[in-house]
Specification:
This protein is mainly α. The protein is built from eight helices and five strands, in the order ββααααααβαβαβ. The longest helix has 25 residues.
Length: about 230
Amino acid sequence: QFALEDVTHPDRFYDGAILNDGTTWRLQSEINNTKLIGIFGVLALGDVYGYYRLKDLWYSKETTKFHTLEFHDDGRKYQLMDKYGHGLHAYFVSDLTTKAYRWAGVSGNESILYGSLTGWLWMLQIEMFDGFFVEWGFSWGDLLANTAGAGFSALNQLYPDVFGGLQPKISYQTSDALKNHTYLNGSKDPIDDYEGMTFWLGINPYHYLPSTVQDDVPVWLRPLGLAVGYSAEG
């Protein structure tokens, strides 16, 4: 098995190494077409489900010609909570599809490239839809957040010694604003409940300790760390 301390060193990504996410690092792709078709099928089903989910929540409103939002005003509208949400969504889709591509036999470097691109395109389609609605518009800020999220997923895996100990997370508890229906924009679903969300960056100190010190840290303590969070009200 590819030990946890080994994945902190990119030069140990040798051909056939088993990463601690269970996937195999390959220098050359050995595609399993059945697995790859299965991945695309799951993505397509998720995309269709997501569209109809958003159609019920958002995409029943008035449409217009494609337009963009003013960058500064867009950034202030939700106290950046929507931007953190976009970035985290892009990160998780990129991270998951990267691992899925490796599982299907795609080479290590290509899996990271295609996974990050998949996460970025997944979110881009939402921006394109938004651009045709009067209430919203194409958001350059959202696009920037999507790029940051997909890019951070790539950095996590390309440079695990530097970024491998950092993990974006989210926690959620239904807010009073949603319970009492006091959102000014009429939000009625957890996906819009920004006051109930907290976005976190988890930091694992063990990951950054010298290898000579790591050996002395109890196994139960190694996964534990600290997290810095961001939330907003009003």
